Amino acid sequence: MKNTRTNIMAATKSLIVEKGYRDMTTKDIARKAQVNEATVFRQFGTKKELLLTTLKEADWTPTVSKDIFDRFQWELAKDLSMIMEEYFEQVTPEIVRFSIGLRAQEIYQETLPYIQKIPTSFIQVIQDYLIKMEEKKVIEISDPKETAELIFSSMIGFAFLNAYASHEQYQKDKEVFVSHAVARFVNGLN
C-alpha cells in the first residue's frame, strides 16, 4: 500500500514537470504509476488533494543545510559561492520545472506556501550571514534583507532561465554564473 502511494506521488511530481498541473490528468497519473485510476481516487480523493498530499509528504523541497553556518569561512566570496552552490545543488532544473508546474491559477493559493519555502529559507540564511559579516566589521550594508533578496533574485533568475538547458550546458553555465555573480556582489559590497 505504501509503495502504491509513493508511486502515485512520484508519478504526480513527474507529470507536473512534464505537463504542469492543468494538463495532467488522473488517467495520466494512474498510467505512469501503473495503477488503476480508481486507486488514485481511493488513495487521495481528487487530483488537487493528491497534489497537496504530494507537497506535504514528498521530500522535494530544497532547504539550506542546518550546518551551513559551521562551514562558513567568513570570507565573502567563498561563503557566497558556497550558498549559491548549495542552492544550485538542490534547486535543479527539474525542481524549477516542478515549481513552474505548480503555478496553475486553480491551485496557486494552496501551493504558494510550498513554493515560497525555498526563497524564504535561502534569503534568511543570506540575510543572517550578511548581518554577521556586518557585526564582524567585514562589510557595511544599509539593508541586509534587501541585499539578501537581491542576491537570491539573481540565483532564482539564473535557475529559471536555465530550467530547460541540457545538463551539461547547465553545469557549465552555472559555474560561470556563480563565479561572475559572486565577483560582482563582492565588488559591490566592499
From TrEMBL:
This is TetR/AcrR family transcriptional regulator. Pfam families: TetR_N (PF00440). PROSITE patterns: HTH_TETR_2. It comes from Enterococcus hulanensis. Residues 2-62 form the HTH tetR-type domain. PANTHER family: ACREF/ENVCD OPERON REPRESSOR-RELATED, ACREF_ENVCD OPERON REPRESSOR-RELATED. Keywords: DNA-binding. It comes from the Bacteria. Signal peptide: none annotated. Residues 25-44 bind DNA.
